[in-house]
Amino acid sequence: MTRHTRYRGRVTRTNSRRTSRRAVYETLRRKVLTLELPPGAALSENELAASLGVSRTPVRESLILLVEEGLVQVFPQVGSFVSRVDPDKVADAQFLREAVELASLEDLPAELDPELVGELRRNLDQQHRPGLTVEDFFALDEEFHHGLLQLAGHGSAWATVVSAKGHLDRARRLGLQETPPEGFADQHVEIFEAVLSGDVAGARAAMRTHLRAVFDDVEAIRERSPELFASASGAVPVRRNVVVWE
Amino acid sequence: MTRHTRYRGRVTRTNSRRTSRRAVYETLRRKVLTLELPPGAALSENELAASLGVSRTPVRESLILLVEEGLVQVFPQVGSFVSRVDPDKVADAQFLREAVELASLEDLPAELDPELVGELRRNLDQQHRPGLTVEDFFALDEEFHHGLLQLAGHGSAWATVVSAKGHLDRARRLGLQETPPEGFADQHVEIFEAVLSGDVAGARAAMRTHLRAVFDDVEAIRERSPELFASASGAVPVRRNVVVWE
DNA sequence: CGCGCAGTACTTGTATACAAGCATCCGTCG
DNA sequence: CGACGGATGCTTGTATACAAGTACTGCGCG
């Protein structure tokens, strides 16, 4: 059956259309990660839809994705809630990122991409700029770790790490409100210097120290603000009265 | 403002209700991973809904989750397709699982959980049973690797690995149609013996060899069946005529 | 004052209707 | 015969309606 038109070959262009769901998803995710929506807060699909000016559909689909990331819990016929920070999940994320980031250091090529190296340098400079807000430092921190993975050719593994470390991030963000980031910035420099000099073992050691320090920081937070963390066994959502902490 | 009833404390029971979306999601995911829905196949929300006897809603929500896992691609106003196996994503999954599984071996406790050890033993026995189907071996393989992670207290990291290794699994499944699994089963035994004897370095070496062998297997597949793999740059979905491979 | 019980309001899950956009088909024209 | 162009059908995105189920509220009773 010969066809007149073969190879119409319409290469479907970019799939990144500005869709309503994407906007809602990003908004909600940001609010959860920045604790603007605190752990335990009740999320009503209807309320969110109304406040965001959309229907339930994109809101609901966004919540499904956030559930997948562990940032939200949905109880059928009961309600949706920002999940409390789960210490087990924090530890899982810590293990995962440590495994991934340390392993990537073993795959660093002999010749580092000069462009990436330049970006990382500028990034580190900014990290030491005085008067940096917590949010700014966080963004730089993310970019730095992502950049290191890219340097080893494993940049796409970062997406997996990101989607798994939501619980870790929320705890950290809270901690950085009090702990100044200078120490972490210095550790970043130490890691980077080792990477530049080709000292894989040194880079691994520095990275491990750094990540462990971040993790210990979280443990300290937990002692000061246990309300944000989940207790053992399933949490107890209460629909209205978001009594979360006191 | 005193309230009459405090601590109503209705602990919301299990959230694992048998929902329609869950069933659809699991069905679709299984069909994609087992290649019953081959890479490149067109998925119509309407058709799927009709054939599964539900409305578009649960189908659509399932597809969103599958997109998140990279198993499906959705092009707005064009169509949804089972994603072709992307060599880059296969490599990413390989890197991730290697990093995680090797790192977990470092965290093995001195005293191994005897119950888990027993399970793993039985698992390995079954792997060597003759007449094993590919699907059976796959299930055992998954259980074995998951069990090893549990042995080190990192069982929950398996979920992340699973959600990232869909592309790797599809390629492997195709390969195992021809390559008998005996070799892999023997490697599993070797890893397990090293773990039991507390030989972390040996276990790491054996595990690395094993995972690399699996990966190389995938490369061999690709040469024989390039149709299932994505070419460089964005794939070209065609709505009707699922010309996928000639 | 405390408790129990029924009604009500709200929740999420699912089904359906409508909107916007793209690919295909087929007639027309060169 | 080949190429162009508009009508048509199908696609996903979004909005809305309905269903099933739960928690909260307030009344009546002991």
UniProtKB/TrEMBL annotation, chains A, B:
Domain HTH gntR-type: 18-85
SMART domains referenced in this protein's UniProt entry, alphabetically: FCD, HTH_GNTR
Keyword Membrane attributed: no
Name of the protein: GntR family transcriptional regulator
CDD domains in the cross-refs: WHTH_GntR (cd07377)
Protein's organism: Pseudonocardia halophobica
Top-rank lineage group of the source organism: Bacteria
Pfam families to which the protein is assigned, alphabetical: FCD, GntR
Annotated keywords: DNA-binding, Transcription, Transcription regulation
One GO molecular-function entry: DNA binding
